[in-house]
Amino acid sequence: MHHLTLDSPDTTIKLKLSEVTKAIYGSKKMVVLTGAGISCNAGIPDFRSAHGLYNANTSTTVKGKDLFDISLFRNEDTLQAFASFMETLYGHTTQAMPTETHKFIHHLKKHNKLLRCYTQNIDALERKLELHTGIIEAQTSNFRKHWKDLDVVQLHGDLHALSCTACFAHFDWSADLRVQLAAGEIPECPKCLENYHHKSAEGKRLSSLTVGMLRPTIVLYGENHPHSESISRGISMDIRSRPDCLVIFGTSLRVDGVKKLVKTMAKEIHDRNGKVIFVNKTSPSHAVWGDFIDYFIESDCDSWIRSLKQDYPDLFLTQLELDQLKLKKSKGKKKQMMLTPPPTPSTNKKFDVSIDPKSIKSNDKIKQLLGERASPEYSPIKTNRIIDLSDEELDVVKQELKKKNPLKQINGNKNSKRPTRPSSKVSKDLDKENQSPKRSSPKKQPVIKQRQNIAIIPKICL
Ligand SMILES: [Zn+2]
């Protein structure tokens, strides 16, 4: 497990951080696990700090994590503390807004990189980004399709719904219910009450009827998740889907179910050379997690996301923004091309003009074609360079070649023993064809290229 920090000047750490970015970039089926650490920047107070929710609770009977314990339902006083605490927490979540880390998960989905997000949070902030939450029964016929469409698995339930402890009917938080809960009263279930009054009016026995209480649909310590079977089946499906990266955000990794999930998922991901990345303010135990986590980034979750955004900006753009950026770049290139002045049209009629500007000296060009040393200023840099010749220059070349090799004819002599090269042949390597068979560097020799749109095509038969 590599321990990384964002601001370190250490080049090794910088290199490892770039490996993390590379893993995110290359992932196609990413699993994300989030904890309370990602919601602190959303405006929801943390639980354990001096000013956290646990210490803000005024109850003298219940403190700390006991506020999430099922044992609260055994006592009237503790039940009141639970009710008011839940209403306070709900109030915070309604005001909170998704953080950079929540948005990162949303971008993963938009870029088809998100296999699943598992969260320990009950604030449901992901829904504000239109990520799908909510689990159905494992036995449901379309469970497989439902799970595939599910973005976020709420491992500890959802604070944004209330359910009856007797009939399990679900209800939204209404203003009236909030007033009752804030006052420390647990509301009775409207559905159970209606049933009770209905049977009472019919004169039926009421002793066997129970009117349930409404409580948030969260999973308390000491109770099982109502959809544990669905979650188990879904996790198995995700593992079979071959996830290639796991990113864990803002959790202490102390809950047993979460520990098991991370270890199982990490093993599967490592089997196919994927990476496990953990972003948190506090370090995990190396003895416990050293074999499961590849990179521990000691950082606020949003700070790392902002760092990632600099290294991999495209991930944080929508498809529309990407298309617009592409279009803008394309227009910029066209504009640049238009601003670039076109080459000056050549007055020469017979040969292409694409040549080094230094070659404007006629003598140098002629010398070069004849295999002689040109002046130091003139030097065709690239091989097979096209040399531009005027009519006068061409005549000089012909005459010079004739002097050097009088037996050969120039310019399409009918008596020539060698056939005239077809005019459609675009280029001729004079050196190769002419008098320098011993020269060992044909690559450096210039090439005369005929312009194809000329009226009179000269023929050089050597
Ligand atoms: Zn009920």
From TrEMBL:
It comes from the Eukaryota. One of its GO terms (cellular component) is nucleus. Residues 10-328 form the Deacetylase sirtuin-type domain. SUPFAM superfamilies: DHS-like NAD/FAD-binding domain. The keyword Metal-binding applies. Residues 331-357, 402-450 are annotated as: Disordered. GO terms for molecular function: histone deacetylase activity, NAD-dependent; metal ion binding; NAD+ binding. Zn(2+) binds at C164, C167, C189, C192. PANTHER family: NAD-DEPENDENT HISTONE DEACETYLASE HST3, NAD-DEPENDENT PROTEIN DEACYLASE SIRTUIN-5, MITOCHONDRIAL-RELATED. This is NAD-dependent histone deacetylase.
